[in-house]
Structures are given as C-alpha cells and as structure tokens.
Specification:
By secondary structure, the protein is of the alpha+beta class. It is built from five helices and 13 strands. The strands form three sheets. Strands 2, 5, 6, 9, 10, 11, 12 and 13 form an eight-stranded antiparallel sheet that branches. The radius of gyration is 31 Å and the shape is globular. The termini are far apart.
Length: 213
C-alpha cells in the first residue's frame, strides 16, 4: 500500500527534477538561438570576417629564384644604378603572356610581374638619367589565372607608403630592384630595413644620410 506523502522515483523526477532543470534548459536553448542569430545576421562581425576570408582564399604560389646577394651597404650601393626614396602611387598587374603548353596541352604562362608607379621624393644615387619624377618599378610576382604568385623576399608594396629602392634600369625604360627584386627598404623610424633575402644573411639597416654620402 502506498503511503501518503511518499513519491516514487518517477514521480520525483516528474515533480522535482524536471521542474528544476526546466529553467536552465530554457536558458541554454535561448543562448543557442541568440548565438546562431548573431552569427548569421547580415553585417554582423562574424559574417564580415567569413566573407573577407572567403574573398581572399585564392590559390597562392610561392616563387623561389636564385639571385645575387649583397652582404654590406657598400656592395648594395655599388651594384645599384639608382637609389631613390619614393611613394607608391598605384599598382598594375599586366597580362602574363603564354609561353607554351604542358604535357597535357594546357597553356603555360610566363612568370607574372607587378608594376608599381612610384613618385620619386629623393634621389640618393644616380648612375645615369633618371627619367622624370615618376618611375615604374617592376618586381616578380603578381596575379595569375587562379590566384597570385608571390616571390620569396619581395615585399608587397602598399599604395601611399614610402620605400627605399635600390634599382637598375631595363632596356624598356622600367626599373627593377637589384638582388632579385628584394632590395627594397621598408621604413622603421628614421631607418630603412632591407630584407635578409637581399643580403644573404641578416636584414640590413640603412639611413638616407648614409646613402647620400
């Protein structure tokens, strides 16, 4: 015979445990729904990050090229026809010509290049005639049919930023950085840092005053 006031296990769960758990469960469900809405709603930070990631998720090929290196400032200066400080005005990716086909008959493109229009602000060394106050600096790497090609040690130059260029001039009138296009100094305070790929050792610190003497 069942005694009054005594609950079975099933009744206990029904009358005590489930009412006790109901409030936390409802709170958890609400939190999950609120989080899901935040993630998928238009213009939310999460959706912007996802869109940005997807937009930049293109195929990137790294180009490795053996090239001369210059371990000291004097070697770098001696092997440069022009040393200038300039500000990048624009960037252009010319169409890469097709140079043949692969064993499967697919077209093979030449190595891509990037053209930077640079406004010259200071000339530190000239071994010839520098044609005008705006020059075109060409480096290896650029857009391809399926993404980008990036050359080791060559920095990606930003429009509006200032750089130090160690240059030679090609027959077509354009300019290219020496040391396999890596001899580009990025400003840090009153100095410029030339990457290790240009020296074959450690990065090189130089100042405009040192190069002007």
């Amino acid at each position: 015979m069942k005694r009054p006031g005594i609950l079975s296990k099933k009744q206990w769960l029904t009358r005590r445990v489930w009412p006790t758990l109901a409030v936390p469960l409802l709170l958890v469900a609400f939190a999950i729904l609120a989080t899901a809405y935040y993630l998928i709603r238009p213009n939310s930070p999460a959706s912007r990050i996802s869109t940005s990631h997807n937009a930049s998720a293109e195929h990137v090929t790294t180009i490795h090229e053996d090239h001369p290196v210059f371990a000291t400032r004097s070697e770098l200066v001696r092997n440069s026809d022009y040393i200038v400080v300039g500000i990048v005005q624009s960037v252009f990716y010319p169409e890469t010509p097709i140079i043949g086909t692969d064993p499967y008959g697919k077209p093979v493109a030449d190595v891509p290049h990037t053209h930077y229009t640079v406004s010259v602000k200071r000339i530190l060394r000239v071994a010839g005639n520098l044609r005008g106050s705006t020059i075109t600096v060409v480096v290896v790497g650029g857009k391809t049919n399926d993404g980008y090609a990036v050359a080791e040690g060559i920095p990606s130059l930003k429009i509006g930023s200032k750089y130090l260029f160690f240059l030679r001039q090609s027959d077509n009138g354009k300019y290219f950085p020496v040391a396999g296009n890596t001899a580009i100094g990025q400003p840090v305070g009153d100095k410029y840092i030339v990457p290790a790929e240009a020296t074959g050792a450690s990065p090189l610190e130089v100042t405009e005053a040192e190069l002007a003497t």
